[in-house]
Specification:
With 153 residues, this protein is α+β, with helices and mostly antiparallel strands. It has 2 domains: 29 residues; 112 residues, Porin, CATH 2.40.160. Strands 1-2-3-4-5-6-7-8 form an 8-stranded antiparallel β-barrel. A hairpin with a 2-residue loop joins β5 and β6. It is extended and about 85 Å long.
Amino acid sequence: MKRTILLKTSLIALGLLVANITFAQKKGKKDDKSKYLEGKKYTVKFYEIKPTGRGKAIESVVTFRDGKVESELMDEKLKIDGATYKINLDSTYNEDETESRLLKVEGNYSKEKDEAAWDATITNYDIEGTVVQKKNGVDKKKFEFSGNEKTKK
């Protein structure tokens, strides 16, 4: 009798432990990564890349919110709404005894025949990357951007 109760109690405890570990793994890193960027704003300069060279700098803000990366400039100029993003790399490293965080982010937008691809690298508070607009699978416009995290007042 005592053995049966002990066995049942052990099985229940083991089941709860496995359920807790499984839940922790599912919730873990993906949520942490997206929470890191969620709500962040970067003041950047966009440069259109033309066959004749790099265009003039156009200031804008790149925002990460609700799982999307967006910019007013891209919305106004290219009619690109927020692109769903994912973090491909989230790494911490030490350089000159200073800890740094490196993120590689990829965003994609698609609506009918219009597409856009975002690629960005974030190192601590700095961001740089590209936005490529495609129509029917052909590159239409390309922009490079770089800037810094917008400070909160």
